[in-house]
Amino acid sequence: MEGPAISSRGTRASSHAFLGVAALLFAASAVTTVVGCTTMSAMGGIPMPGGWSMSMTWMRMPDQSWSGTAAAFLGMWMAMMTAMMLPSLVPMLWRYRQALIGTSRTRLDGLTVLVGLAYFFIWSVFGALIFPLSAALAAFAMEHPTLARAMPIAAGVVVLIAGAMQFTVWKARHLACCRDVPKHGCSMPTNAIAAWRHGLRLGVHCSCSSAGLTAILLVIGVMNLTAMTVVTAAITAERLAPGGERVARGIGAVVIGAGMFLLVRAVGFG
């Protein structure tokens, strides 16, 4: 049976605890990401035909199995996604908590955790799909110089497509669903299944909304700290700023310009 609702003082304490845990989680994930990126950068890359370098992210070390390599990538991916998505997720979780009026503190904290776990579970699924596809493409490029030479052009095309996606109805719909979190005072189911489903739904919409920007990160360099920072800022802005759809289109215009630059540079280099 659910306990008594949180008092005013208890609400403040719960809110402070929530923000404190979120800050610690962000700090831990950010430090882990920076350390991982620095380590990967120190290892360098494999020079490839076409004037680019293959990241060691997709390579298996001599003393590693493929399962171990995949597990290491997934761990790094989740640390990176936690650092990148928390700035925009925390306000959504905050509003979710505000919607659960009349809920005991223990239950409120538990439901919030479930929403967050379900949200990042979706991102872990994406990471589990990305690694084998990217590793296979990297291995194929290593064996076929013609494909390797075409990769810089392909990267430019991917960035162009990602920019164009920012103007689509598909993007607008997922972004709207991602931004449409419960408002203060609304009625929300207060059970674990509903919380898990809410987190899954939020994760699906937000990952689909961020698909184009995430693709840019993958083709530019998944362990590139500068690219991560820029993509994080773009995702946070379009999710939280007033007029998110207009912000997304502005980002799309910038991305299209960047894609054209990459294409011109790739063609010129070739």
Automatic annotation (TrEMBL):
Transmembrane segment boundaries: 21-46, 66-90, 111-141, 147-170, 211-235, 247-267
Stored Pfam families: PpoB2 (PF09948)
Keyword tags: Membrane, Transmembrane, Transmembrane helix
Domain of life: Bacteria
Claim: Lyase is one of the keywords in the record: no
InterPro entries: PpoB2-like (IPR018688)
Name of the protein described by the UniProt record: DUF2182 domain-containing protein
Organism lineage string: Bacteria, Pseudomonadati, Pseudomonadota, Gammaproteobacteria, Lysobacterales
